[in-house]
Amino acid sequence: MLLLAASVEAGRDGLESAGRRIYRNGVNGEGRAVTADLVMTGTRLSGVGVACRNCHGDGGEGSAESGLTAPALTWARLAQPRPAPIPARPAYGDAELRRALAEGKDPAGRLLHPAMPRYRLDRRDADGLLAYLRILGTERDTDPGVDPDVIRVGTALPLTGERAATGRLVQDTLPACVARVNGDGGVFGRRLELRVFDSASGRAGQVQPEVFAWLARFESDAAPAAIPEPEAGRIPSIGPLADMTMAPEQSGASTFALLPTLADQAAALVRFAAAENAARTGSLRLGLIRTPDRQGEVLAAAVLEQVRRLELPDPVVATAETALAPALSSPDFKAVNAMVVLGGAREWSAVSAAWPDSGPLLLGLLTTSGRAVLALPPPIAARVRLAVPFAVDDAAGIDALSAELRAEGMALSNPGLQAAACGAVQVFAEAARRSGRRLTRARLVDALESLQDFHSPLLPAIGFAKGGRNGSAGAYVVAVGQGGFQARSGWVESPR
Predict the structure, then answer these.
(1) At 255, which helix (H) or strand (E)?
(2) Which residues pair with 118 in a beta bridge?
């Protein structure tokens, strides 16, 4: 009997899950788009374009737009007869719903509005959609990865290969961050359950339906290519750890980045340099050296945009695709008082050779500069200022993060990386709580888009907007010293 009951439960869950995909995405349980006829135009359409959710809402609450009303589809409304003065109708049952979907007629036999598609569903697809309508808008109406007492979240990290050490540090850090959330009661009584995948193995894309959301994953290494669109784009990814050159709006509809893009950090450097020079010399004569690739092009464009906004003189530009020494020794470059270095070891070596003892302020991004700046001779290092996405002088934040990790037997060894990982967990938990007990990805995205001025140790204040996926825009600026990095500014905002 227990096995039979479990089998019935699994069958029902399977139907509801298939029906959910039809309702939300117009795609059946096998990943095929259903079809529908639109009588007002006489055309046959893919269900992807006329999914039920588009008009009737994520929770079946209905909508009204441009004079057209799509009624609520919750079972509590459908299963009740509708009295006058609105045209009365008997209650919907299974047979009546099948006729409404296929023929566009209500239980009284009246034609529904011609904007209502006539869906061409086979028996199993119709069974699934009807099963889902019975739970639509209730606490059971959640997305894959959400159970009555568990929310399964995933991360995909490089656990093998040359970046394995970084991946394993994040793998060890995330459980401590999750434990903090669970220790505070979880999310409406549901505990977070973390699943970790090796992004280098290619398995991450194959298991996405098992997780409700991605947290702190290496975004570029775990492409969601193994499940059909549009569902792949609907799985939120919060706090990706890969360095983003541009805004995440360009990398995925449901990617919410916590840290500023490299372009935003480059723009902040210009604003910092302009303020510094205004206080000292009154004018900024900027030089720029960049790599010849797409990243160098985007970062240089961000610098030039800030130069334009601040009404500064056009900078002198060199692209690191030929010999740099002749360019940097030209009179134009010798006249600059601040130099933006958008590159790595090769570019920093050329700048060091051009100004070995004294010269302009040297500005760069810690992410692209890497260890090259730590090996610079002291006279050159003293003039270096780097944009970083973390507050290196946040002693209270470091203490709080250290205590959180120490409680789970973890040490704080890479504050920036570990703060970003824990920040992703904290932002997710906050947005999930704001979503309410009926947790869906659409409701989570709505909650994220309304999140403003959220604080997590060492990170800038995080906030999103409708359609805005960049949680912060700007940088902190640090100097390079023998003991590491020293703060030279608070948060420098990058206007957009």
Answers:
(1) strand 255-256
(2) 37
Give the angle 359-363-364 at the CA atoms, nearest 5°.
140
- Each residue of 276-331: pLDDT tens digit? 876 566 678 999 999 999 999 999 999 999 999 999 999 999 987 667 888 888 89
**Angle at CA of residue 170, ends 166 and 171, nearest 5°:** 110
Instruction: Please give, one letter per residue, the 3-state secondary structure of 381-417.
Output: HCCEEEEECCCCCCHHHHHHHHHHHHCCCCCCCCHHH
Give the residue among 141, 169, 143, 142 at the shortest CA–CA distance from 155.
169
Fold matches, 150-259+394-464 and 262-388+478-493: yes
- Residue ranges in 184-293 assigned as alpha helix (H): 262-280
Q: Report residue 439 CA to chain centroid gap.
A: 18
Interatomic CA distance for residues 214 and 218, integer angstroms: 10
Q: Which CATH architecture has domain 262-388+478-493?
A: 3-Layer(aba) Sandwich (3.40)
CA angle 54, 59, 62 (to 5 degrees): 60
May I ask the CATH architecture of the domain 150-259+394-464?
Answer: 3-Layer(aba) Sandwich (3.40)
Looking up tokens 């983003």, which residue turns up? 244
Residue in the structure block whose two tokens are 């500064």: 312
CA distance 52 to 128: 14
DSSP lists the bridge partners of residue 63 as: 70
* Averaged pLDDT for residues 170-192: 96
Separation in Å, CA 404 to CA 16, 27, 189 = 40, 43, 21
Q: Are strands 150-157 and 213-215 parallel, antiparallel or unpaired?
A: parallel
- State the pairing for strand pair 286-290/338-342: parallel
Closest CA to 20 of 53, 54, 61: 53
Identify the band that residue 360 occupies on the pLDDT scale cut at 50, 70 and 90.
very high
